[in-house]
Structures are given as structure tokens and as C-alpha cells.
Amino acid sequence: MTELPPEAEARLQAMIAEQKARRSQEDEAGKARRNIWRMHHWANEHERCAVVAGRHVCRRCLTLYPIAIAIMVAALAGVHPWPERLDVWFIWLLCIPATAEFVAEKLFHVAYSGRRQIAVTALVGLGRGLAYEVDDQWTWYFWGPVLVFGSMWFLAAVTRARNTMFEDALTASLESGEMSGRV
Asked: What is the domain count for the chain?
């Protein structure tokens, strides 16, 4: 095998190093995509997660689901958190603080607060609605709030993602000088 001239060897080594760096970045991105099922937050939002056994888990989900399941089990066992005649009011009204917090953070750039997130998430009346769903499938006590408030959360998240992509593209163009001299 013939030896390459020193400058060609240096260029080859630089290309190999660049490929290794790119593969490493792709591996990190792939790892993030594989892990997103349990936290649905990208690396730039890991402050919204708790670390459980060395893995990031969404703090909102870590609060919401155990409380909802506990309330559902208690309600199905006959222990109700409030009088049954008030169910429809509490199930709907208790979703409002968490929805307001989520929308304010996504659309109005209210700073994230883990304590606030846990407090408003703990209030959600999902567990009582879930008990209705387990007892009688397709009940509006469960699906009504899920559809209404879930749609609000979805639209706020999509709008924020769209706005963030636009802001990132604008910043990149300003930094590259593409926009200089344009009115």
C-alpha cells in the first residue's frame, strides 16, 4: 500500500474525524428520539423532567397519572373526593389551572416552574372522570375534558413549536447575514 502525502493524510484524517463527530451527534439525536416516549421532552426541556433510576421522566406525567389512578381506585371503591352531584363541576373546573399554566408557558412565555407545574397538575380531576370511564365506557365525564382541554394543550404546543421554528430560522438568517440590507 502506498503512503499518502502528508497534506492528503491530514485531510483524510480530518474527514474521518468529521464523520465520527457527525455519527456521534446522530447517535445522540437517535437516543433522544428513542427515549422520548417516557418524557416527551427534547434535551433542551429536561428541566421539565424528574430523573428516576437514571432516566428522565416527565414531571407532569409523574404527578398526574399516579394521582389519577389513586383517585379512580378510591372512587370505584366508593370513596368519593366530593359529593357525586358535584362531579361534573369539579371534573371540568379542576382541569382549568393546569390548562392555564400550560398555555401561559407555551404561548405567553411564562417561565417554567416545576413547583407550579406539580401543584396545578395535582389538582386535575382526571381520576374521578377516569372512574366514570372504567365504570361506563365512553362517558363525557372523562372524554369531554380530555377532548376540550387536550385540544387546547395540543394547539398551544403546536403553535409554540411553529413559532420557535420561525424564530430559530430568523435568528439563523440574521446571524448568517442573509437579511442584512433588506427592509
From this structure: 1
